[in-house]
């Protein structure tokens, strides 16, 4: 399933944090999430989680800016083929609604707060076919003010990551950065410092002098940025100057909120920030623009939950109320504060879990996809939803493409799939509106997996039509220009190249590996075809030597690197689930072995690998996890090797995502690999490798990675493998450091491929 999240921006705020955490939780469940916004502080966190962000100026009501946002959003929805579009703020929801009326995609919204219903603001407010409300009172607001039917609204929560928000969080770096006092009684306030969100901050500053007279060694830390921040800072500075001491510290916008909340003795604030502080076991005063609840305890639970900890309708936040409750908490016995903190965290754990928040969203997505009542769906239906979508597609209208990508795609080969994924990801990150068509053996699966249009690679009429209507053909990575696989394979890729040039299109070989070529006639065909393309990039220097041997010298040729060097592993929880699926106990030390069948492989190969695997287990207590990079081809030889072992081995022979396999290799002690991309994955996550060379490309890549441990497929001597393993175990740290340098350089060169491709499209 593919979901597009839209919001105004990604600066500090409760709704923004909700979107980030929801996107990460959905991604862990296998949903492909794209976030569109004007950007901000949380962009880096999305990137770290492997979630695509597209910049669209949703932050402004200026008509020209909104028109630009409308057009960019339209292009994104067309090219993304999203199964659900999910809007989280007024302007994005308004623009999504305009497009939805015309193009009829599945459209849902989340109401994080109440909007003004006065003219003309009511004209900008639109809601989806289904809606989530973050509290019961917001649900009532939607029903009363917008006539939304109750059955189309589901109440959700602000899910809190209890691992991220903990009293044990290390905050030493912010202590140094802001010179926080070691023995201070610290009050932490967190909010977005916009005019409509900062009222409680002003009142806390008003009360600060009086509180300091009652509490020795007081320190107030106000965290957040926004359009009212300079006023907040000026007021704080004025108090500090009057008192001749550094009583109030203002930080501006931050993304490391967990460290600030963990540093405090008590917390003041509302909504998500309050819940995050409660997760850190901090006694909390719930106070904000919309009202005042006061010290959170058992008596305040119902009203806090009913208002989503926003205090709507709960009286006014005043400096006197804050002074009273802050002094009360800071003067309370340690045992009472600890009790309040434990209750606060227990409340978050019971009512505001990440799983519940993700379940709510999934249930809504399922309900709109299957057109069933929102409260009659199950999060478990996510397991079958992709099959349902394939059989019941909802497509946006087609369009001419900017690029057609040709390669060995749709065959269940992780290496080639990772190349396509990396190419698409890089191109879209640099040009979110780019229109991509892929030639695939399984077009529907490719469309669902990568969010691109796809046609069958052997449907001649479709291929010709797409080549006629594109700007650029990319011959997409891997070892396409070789005749070891077959003469037919080489003929296919050269034919696609020649067709594109016949139609006057630009052609780029994108990070290709060249050779080997054993047939002189094939060498002549390569010479003729490749001297007519516009640009060639290569994944390693040895491929450049091969092209020179064929007399290819007309186009510009650059040595870059394999696109897969720029991919990221899945998170540890997802990887743990993958490893558990093959029976490996959580926390076990393991290595990865990636084999494939090959025609020069001699009898006894499987036994030699098995001997090495037993040696690894007996001497180092390291289990062997056999990874089938292309299960349809690799399973037989893999099972033979595992069966020959005396110790127990573990086999991953199901289809797994590139991110999952990267994560498995990231956690391994080392890799023994025949598959080229098992070695590339290892290098990208700094895991030492032993290469089994069945093809010159293995030696070429090992040279590129500056790795010395390799042996020929014809003679994988187990004694040699064991000797290599001993050296790797002994020198693992140094090897990983060398690989880190290689990976960093390769990643930069991999991005160059995409930049060059886009320049061909634009010029």
Characterization of the model:
It is a single chain. This protein is α/β, with parallel strands linked by helices and 763 residues long. It has 4 domains: 154 residues, Glycogen Phosphorylase B (Rossmann fold, 3-Layer(aba) Sandwich); 181 residues, 3-Layer(aba) Sandwich (Rossmann fold), CATH 3.40.50; 157 residues, Glycogen Phosphorylase B (Rossmann fold); 175 residues, Glycogen Phosphorylase B (Rossmann fold, 3-Layer(aba) Sandwich). Helices cover 47% and strands 16% of the residues. The protein has 29 helices and 26 strands. The chain has a 7-stranded parallel sheet with strand order 3-2-1-4-5-6-7, with helices on both faces. β4, α4 and β5 form a beta-alpha-beta unit. It is globular, with a radius of gyration of 29 Å. It starts with a strand and ends with a helix. 51% of the residues are buried.
Summarize the structure in short.
By secondary structure, the chain is α/β, with parallel strands linked by helices. The protein is 47% helix and 16% strand.
CATH T-level topology of the largest domain: Rossmann fold
- Structural class by sheet pairing and helices: alpha/beta
Q: Mean pLDDT, as a whole number?
A: 91
Helix residue percentage:
40-55%
CATH 2nd-level architecture of the largest domain: 3-Layer(aba) Sandwich
Largest sheet: 7 strands, parallel
Strand content: 15-25%
Distance between the termini: 35 Å
CA radius of gyration is 29 Å
CATH superfamily of the largest domain: Glycogen Phosphorylase B
| Global shape | globular
For the record, the CATH class of the largest domain is: Alpha Beta
**Number of H/I helices:** 29
Q: How many domains is the backbone divided into?
A: 4
- For the secondary structure, the number of strands is 26
Strand order of the largest sheet: 3-2-1-4-5-6-7
């Amino acid at each position: 399933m593919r979901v597009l999240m839209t919001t105004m921006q990604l600066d500090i705020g409760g709704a923004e944090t909700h979107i980030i955490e929801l996107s990460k939780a959905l991604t862990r469940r296998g949903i492909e999430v794209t976030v569109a916004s004007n950007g901000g502080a949380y962009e880096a966190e999305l990137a770290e989680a492997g979630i695509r962000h597209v910049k669209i100026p949703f932050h402004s009501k200026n008509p020209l800016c909104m028109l630009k946002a409308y057009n960019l959003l339209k292009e994104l929805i067309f090219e993304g083929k999203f199964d659900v579009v999910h809007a989280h703020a007024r302007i994005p929801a308004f623009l999504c609604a305009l497009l939805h009326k015309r193009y009829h995609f599945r459209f849902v919204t989340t109401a994080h707060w109440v909007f003004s219903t006065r003219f003309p603001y009511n004209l900008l407010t639109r809601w989806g076919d289904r809606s989530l409300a973050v509290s019961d009172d917001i649900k009532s607001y939607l029903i009363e003010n917008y006539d939304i039917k109750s059955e189309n609204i589901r109440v959700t929560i602000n899910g809190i990551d209890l691992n991220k928000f903990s009293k044990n969080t290390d905050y030493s770096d912010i202590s140094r950065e802001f010179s926080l006092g070691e023995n201070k009684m610290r009050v932490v306030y967190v909010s977005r410092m916009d005019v409509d969100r900062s009222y409680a901050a002003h009142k806390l500053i008003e009360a600060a002098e009086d509180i300091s007279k009652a509490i020795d060694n007081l320190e107030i830390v106000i965290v957040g940025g926004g359009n009212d921040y300079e006023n907040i800072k000026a007021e704080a500075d004025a108090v500090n100057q009057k008192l001749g001491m550094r009583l109030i510290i203002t930080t501006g916008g931050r993304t490391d909120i967990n460290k600030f909340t963990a540093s405090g003795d008590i917390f003041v604030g509302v909504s998500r920030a309050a819940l995050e502080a409660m997760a850190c076991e901090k006694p909390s005063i719930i106070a904000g623009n919309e009202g005042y609840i006061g010290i959170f305890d058992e008596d305040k639970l119902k009203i806090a939950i009913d208002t989503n900890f926003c205090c709507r309708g709960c009286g006014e936040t005043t400096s006197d109320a804050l002074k009273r409750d802050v002094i009360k908490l800071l003067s309370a016995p340690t045992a009472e504060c600890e009790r309040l903190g434990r209750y606060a965290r227990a409340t978050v754990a019971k009512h505001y879990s990440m799983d519940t928040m993700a379940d709510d969203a999934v249930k809504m997505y399922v309900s709109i996809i299957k057109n069933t009542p929102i409260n009659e769906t199950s999060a478990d239906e996510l397991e079958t939803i992709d099959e349902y979508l394939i059989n019941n597609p909802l497509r946006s209208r087609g369009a001419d493409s900017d690029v057609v990508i040709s390669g060995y795609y749709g065959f269940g080969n992780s290496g080639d799939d990772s190349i396509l994924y990396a190419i698409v990801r890089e191109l879209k990150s640099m040009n979110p509106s780019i229109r991509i068509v892929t030639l695939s053996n399984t077009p529907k699966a490719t469309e669902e997996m990568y969010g691109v249009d796809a046609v069958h690679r052997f449907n001649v009429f479709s291929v010709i039509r797409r080549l006629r209507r594109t700007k650029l053909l990319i011959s997409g990575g891997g070892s396409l220009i070789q005749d070891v696989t077959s003469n037919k394979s080489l003929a296919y890729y050269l034919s696609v190249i020649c067709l594109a040039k016949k139609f006057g299109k630009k052609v780029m070989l994108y990070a290709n590996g060249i050779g080997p070529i054993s047939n002189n006639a094939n060498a002549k065909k390569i010479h003729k075809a490749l001297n007519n393309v516009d640009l060639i990039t290569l994944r390693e220097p040895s491929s450049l030597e091969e092209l020179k041997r064929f007399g290819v010298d007309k186009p510009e040729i650059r040595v870059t690197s394999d696109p897969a060097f720029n991919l990221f592993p899945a998170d540890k929880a997802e990887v743990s689930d993958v490893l558990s699926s093959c029976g490996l106990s959580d926390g076990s030390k393991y290595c990865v072995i990636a084999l494939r069948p090959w025609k020069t492989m001699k009898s006894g190969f499987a036994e030699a690998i098995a001997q090495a695997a037993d040696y690894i287990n007996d001497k180092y207590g390291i289990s062997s996890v056999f990874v089938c990079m292309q299960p349809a081809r690799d399973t037989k030889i893999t099972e033979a090797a595992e069966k020959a072992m005396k110790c127990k081995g573990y086999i991953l022979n199901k289809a797994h995502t590139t991110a999952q396999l990267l994560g498995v290799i990231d956690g391994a002690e080392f890799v023994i690999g025949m598959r080229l991309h098992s070695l590339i994955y290892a290098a990208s996550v700094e895991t030492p490798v032993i290469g089994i060379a069945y093809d010159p490309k293995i030696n070429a890549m090992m040279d590129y990675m500056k790795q010395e441990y390799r042996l020929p497929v014809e003679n994988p001597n187990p004694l040699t493998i064991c000797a290599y393993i001993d050296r790797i175990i002994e020198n693992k740290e140094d090897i990983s450091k060398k690989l880190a340098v290689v990976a960093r350089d390769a990643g930069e060169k991999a991005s160059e491929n995409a930049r060059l491709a886009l320049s061909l499209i634009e010029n």
